[in-house]
Specification:
192 residues; alpha+beta; OB fold (Dihydrolipoamide Acetyltransferase, E2P); 42% helix
Length: 192
């Protein structure tokens, strides 16, 4: 079997619609890799992942069915009844293949254990709002994965906390979901 036979099979009915859809899937995922948005993770497998797997399986199944039915597609393309049977069998096979593959893929998209905010207690943060007081304020801290995270902070001390000041997180208020901070001088390693 030569590459020409594969191309001829890919461009005959019932394979040709799936060929163009598979090309669209490949272009879509190339755009995602270059800088598009990632698939959204929810409770299950995102539709764009499931749809892509289904279309690729359908294309492979119709291609295989066409090549098995007629060895030389260019000389003897499948007729309409054979094409309909190949397409139906391919869609059923693609559905079963996608269902079987969805279970392991679902594990990849399962949300992880939520991060415990109390793990940030004892870390240093940088104030980002105009002022931090007992009622309002935000600061930026480096999360466990190294990414910057903006958190709600409160401060009831005498010293002022302005934008760019460093502070140490000393408590987490679970009820109000805020961190309590104290002014911190990184040069001295203590509070001023």
């Amino acid at each position: 079997m030569a590459i020409n036979d594969l191309f001829d099979a890919a461009m005959t009915f019932p394979v040709v619609p799936f060929t163009f859809l598979t090309v669209a899937v490949v272009v879509y995922w190339l755009l995602i890799m270059v800088g598009g948005s990632a698939p959204g993770a929810g409770d299950g497998v995102p539709l764009n992942v499931t749809g892509s797997v289904f279309l690729v399986f359908a294309w492979l199944a119709t291609l295989a069915g066409t090549l098995i039915h007629t060895g030389d597609v260019a000389a003897h393309p499948p007729g309409l009844p054979a094409s309909i049977v190949i397409a139906v069998v391919a869609l059923v096979a693609a559905g079963l293949g996608t269902a079987l593959l969805a279970r392991p893929i679902r594990r990849l998209f399962r949300p992880g254990r939520p991060a415990d905010p109390a793990r940030l207690v004892g870390t240093i943060c940088v104030v980002r709002t105009g002022e931090v007081g007992p009622d309002a304020g935000q600061a930026e801290v480096t999360g466990p994965d190294g990414a910057p995270v903006v958190i709600e902070v409160r401060h009831d001390g005498i010293e002022e906390l302005r934008p760019g000041n460093t502070a140490m997180i000393h408590d987490y208020d679970v009820e109000h979901r805020v961190f309590w901070v104290t002014a911190f001088d990184p040069k001295l390693g203590t509070t001023p």
